[in-house]
Amino acid sequence: DGAGRTGTYICIDIEISKVENGKPVDILQQTLALRKARSGLVGNMHQYRFIYETICSFITCRPTTIKAFEFAQLVERMSSDAAAASSTNAAIISAKKKAAKFTQNGFQLEFANLTAIVKSLSVGECAGGHRAENRWKSRDVMVQPRQSL
Question: Domain Tyrosine-protein phosphatase spans what residues (predicted)?
Answer without folding.
Answer: 1-58
